[in-house]
Amino acid sequence: AQSVAQPEDQVNVAEGNPLTVKCTYSVSGNPYLFWYVQYPNRGLQFLLKYITGDNLVKGSYGFEAEFNKSQTSFHLKKPSALVSDSALYFCAVSPPNDYKLSFGAGTTVTVRA
Amino acid sequence: EAQVTQNPRYLITVTGKKLTVTCSQNMNHEYMSWYRQDPGLGLRQIYYSMNVEVTDKGDVPEGYKVSRKEKRNFPLILESPSPNQTSLYFCASSSSGSGAYEQYFGPGTRLTVT
Fold it and tell me: Partner of B106 for a Cys bridge, out of B2, B6, B86, B97, CB 3.0 to 4.6 A?
């Protein structure tokens, strides 16, 4: 069975500083990896995904993530955080060619002005 | 506008009173799924559907039922709700169940069972 770990419940950064949200996974085979963001009182929104190919994936709102197979990680990054990036972020993994998506517990990001 | 809609958005009910949460998508997606979100646990899958009349259990199906009679609709039924089903529920859809496609989420339904 697959699983996802987000080791930090909370990440606090100052506006303009780099933002990193960590994610590690466990799955058989080559994984499909996703990041979603949830703003207060909203559903989840897709940010980016890794399926195959280039290990550095670029997504919405200036976010990117790097797939590292040897470390089984898929950390989310943004070079310069904005106050509007404050939200709850979820990492998710799916085995190849499988319907089942498993989510991490989520990381709350707070960007202070 | 492409979207997943859920109704109601908020619901307070009592133990044992049957309820249905509706979910509808207008993107002609084959795959639909229900999740519940609880603090510290992330999202856990309740049921999913690969297509019309094809449904299967997720990680936490106990106490829930679903049906998929039309492609666009995927209602979640709680026949005898209990307080441990108090949670935030999300419906999601995807163009395919292959796992490579992102899911589109509804706005959520906050359910309180007293």
Answer: B6
